[in-house]
Write a structure and sequence with these properties.
The complex is a heterodimer of chains A (353) and B (320). By secondary structure, chain A is α/β, with parallel strands linked by helices. Chain A contains 13 helices and 13 strands. Helix content of chain A is 32%, strand content 23%. An eight-stranded mixed β-sheet of chain A has the order 7-8-9-3-10-11-13-12, sandwiched between helices. In chain A, strands 1, 2, 4, 5 and 6 form a five-stranded antiparallel β-sheet that branches. In chain A, helix 4 packs across helix 5 (146-159) and helix 7 packs parallel to helix 8 (208-225). Chain B is 63% helix and 0% strand. Chain B has eleven helices and no strands. In chain B, helix 4 packs parallel to helix 7, helix 9 packs antiparallel against helix 11 and helix 10 packs antiparallel against helix 11 (288-315). Classes of the chains: A alpha/beta (353), B mainly alpha (320). The interface between A and B is large, with 53 and 46 residues.
Chain lengths: 353, 320
């Protein structure tokens, strides 16, 4: 399989020397399965992606496409058992995290790689004040005292633009609004200035106006710290403004990768095309909205061949027998399109046809 | 990026649990009063609950009686004057006097015996509860959190204990001891009672350990010990506290029952159960010898069970 690398056009100067630049994370041929009573659920089937410092990778896909499971595997928070990683590598700065001890991985979590969760209300402990929970980051990882940690917590809350941070530091999560809670989650993830942040649908639980604010904040902070960001989402609108490159997942595989704007302009996989066509558009007022017919596959029984074939308008016999590999996508004349790849037997027809 | 620090809010989002604010900036300013947490809320709820106020008052009085019986009576509970006081009737107007509740068949002041008996009853009740909560809670927590082998072991063990009738088991255990001190009785009751708390704790921990905030804590680098004691325990504690407070009363009853059956505290120890046992020999002519120790026992058990009930009401949001 091809690994796709794109440098963001304008990577800001690294904040603290070379430590903050270069390849941060490399996921290679990752497989994750869950052993359940009904059988083996193959949630992730050979995912490859990479993130550089200062770069934003958006992982796009429906529920059950394996995008969150991949993230959990990277963080090392999969429940094992029933989860299992039969093969693959997760290289963080060149080191395979799957081979590390639990203690080594724990030290990476929070300090080097942090995660932002979807539902901030349930992701914050209801019986502890937000100040305590923010301060916990410094107390666990840096061994600060209670008082120092609280001062740092106020600082963090100010950095994520929570008004009256000093007065609110002792408040409990349920006393904050949805957007403010997500800011606190972001502050927690940012606390130790990690190299990489994984945001698992950070705005899904928020209403639209707040979504934009939170995404802007996240993008600002990412630029400021030159962090790598993996943005997991099913919202094409969120992705367009923030991401540098996109990986589209379907049934545990990456079906297309591309720099963000090229993907919107010329999708090279029928699934991506279907997703884009199902966005409501003003110029199609009054017409019926397109929808990809069918349902996402049952991961216990992934269709043979291309997993998308039962729903694909272009499916041929070969799609039902051969699993398409992620191949580089080129222009009609063979000119290379850097960073583009598609796992479709008919990618040429899809992008050029 | 809009300037979020510029707020025009008048309302705080103190009550909002859903993200219902149209613009995020409404969430501003300090919430009035103290920060609200589960425990703060519970405390506020408790203070305004008459059931709690009454039971707390009774418990405080009982604890003081148990700790300093000398404050309440000078009469010696262990020796009586059979010649002058043989089964003397109570003088209900002689408050806090030796003859307030009358005398028993050995001429001992019943008031004094009731006061001095409080210590053993309450000691056993509180002691067993503490032992059971610590040991059962720890076992339940480990079983719930780690699962697998430890869970199977502890769960099967609790199943075994579940099949043993509490009192019968305690009788069998205590029968093996000739010198039954408070500690022996406590140990026997705790030995048979810890599984109840272990079950409750195990269930609560299993519910809590899959909560998003526990996963989030793990994702941000918290270790097992911190996750268990900082993030899971405070959230799993409420049902355990409820069960513990309510069962405290039942442990006191169990101790009295055992004493009544002659298998409780050894000779010489003053206990309500023992006194009730002695009194039954002649209740028709001298009901007062039974009435006062039995009354004290009832009040004590009632106080703890009322307390447990109030705590349950305050901690269980579904009842609000």
């Amino acid at each position: 399989m091809t690994s796709i690398d794109i440098k963001a056009d304008s990577v800001p100067a690294p904040r603290s020397g070379e430590e903050r630049s270069g390849r941060l994370l490399d996921v290679k041929d990752l497989h994750v399965e869950f052993h359940t009573r009904e059988g083996v659920v193959k949630a992730v089937n050979g995912v490859n992606y990479s993130v550089d410092a200062g770069e934003t990778l958006a992982v796009l896909g429906e529920s059950g496409s394996g995008k969150s499971v991949t993230a959990q595997a990277i963080m090392g928070i999969l429940d094992m058992p029933p989860g299992k990683i039969p093969q693959g590598e997760i290289l963080f700065r060149g080191q395979d995290m799957l081979k590390m001890s639990n203690e080594e991985r724990r030290k990476i979590r929070g300090r080097k790689i942090a995660m932002i969760f979807q539902d901030a209300l349930s992701s914050l402990n209801p019986v502890l004040s937000v100040g305590y929970q923010l301060g916990e980051m410094f107390r666990v990882h840096d061994g600060l005292s209670r008082k120092q940690a609280k001062a740092k917590a106020v600082e963090l809350m100010e950095r994520v633009k929570i008004p009256a941070a000093k007065e609110r530091v002792n408040d409990y999560p349920h006393q904050f609004s949805g957007g403010m809670r997500q800011r606190i989650m972001i502050a927690m993830a940012l606390a130790l200035e990690p190299d990489l942040i994984i945001a698992d649908e950070p705005t899904t639980a928020l209403d639209v106006t707040v979504q934009a604010q939170v995404m802007d904040l996240l993008a600002d902070l990412q630029r400021e710290y030159n962090m790598g960001l993996i943005l997991i989402t099913h919202d094409l609108g969120v992705v367009a403004d923030v991401a540098d490159k996109i990986a589209v997942m379907y049934a545990g595989r990456i079906v297309e990768t591309a720099p963000v704007h090229e993907l919107y302009k010329r999708p090279a996989h029928p699934y991506t095309r279907g997703l884009l066509e199902s966005i409501p558009r003003l110029d199609q007022k009054g017409q019926e909205l397109y929808a990809i017919k069918g349902l996402p596959p049952n991961l216990l029984h992934i269709p043979s061949g291309c997993a998308f074939n039962p729903r694909c308008p272009k499916a041929q016999d070969i799609c039902r027998t051969d699993v398409p590999a992620l191949v580089p996508v080129t222009e009609r004349d063979g000119a290379e399109l850097p960073g583009r790849g598609s796992a479709c037997h008919f990618w040429k027809e899809t992008i050029h046809g | 990026m809009p300037d979020l620090t510029k707020t025009t809010a008048t309302a705080t989002d103190e009550q909002s649990v859903t993200p219902d604010a149209p613009v995020d900036a409404i969430a501003s300013g300090p919430a009035p009063g103290k920060p609200r947490s589960l425990w703060n809320d519970a405390w506020r709820e408790l203070r305004s609950n008459p059931l709690f106020v009454i039971s707390a008052f009774l418990i405080v009085v009982l604890l003081v009686v148990a700790a300093f019986p000398g404050l309440f009576t000078d009469a010696n509970p262990d020796s009586g004057d059979q010649v002058n006081h043989f089964l003397g009737k109570p003088e209900l107007t002689h408050f806090f006097q030796a003859d307030w509740f009358g005398y028993d068949r050995v001429g001992r002041s019943i008031y004094s015996r009731v006061v001095h008996g409080a210590r053993n009853s309450i000691l056993v009740g509180v002691g067993v509860t503490i032992l059971v909560t610590l040991f059962g809670g720890l076992c339940g927590m480990l079983a719930g959190y780690f699962g697998g082998f430890w869970d199977s072991l502890i769960s099967r063990l609790t199943d075994v204990f579940f099949g043993i009738p509490f009192l019968l088991g305690a009788m069998v255990v205590l029968n093996a001891f000739t010198d039954r001190t408070v500690w022996v009785v406590m140990g026997a009751l705790a030995f048979l009672g810890w599984t109840q708390i272990a079950r409750v704790m195990r269930g609560a921990v299993i519910t809590t350990k899959h909560a998003d905030y526990v996963v989030a804590a793990r994702a941000l680098g918290a270790g097992t010990k911190r996750i268990l004691f900082r993030h899971i325990l405070p959230n799993a504690l409420a049902p355990v506290i409820v069960v513990a407070t309510i069962s405290l009363g039942t442990y006191i009853v169990a101790e009295s029952t055992l004493s009544y059956l002659g298998l409780g505290l050894g000779d010489g120890a003053i206990s309500w159960g023992g006194d009730i046992s002695d009194a039954t020999q002649d209740i028709r002519n001298n009901p007062h010898t039974l009435f006062f120790p039995a009354g004290m026992l009832s009040i004590t058990v009632l106080a703890f069970i009322m307390m447990g009930d109030a705590v349950r009401e305050a901690l269980d949001p579904k009842l609000r």
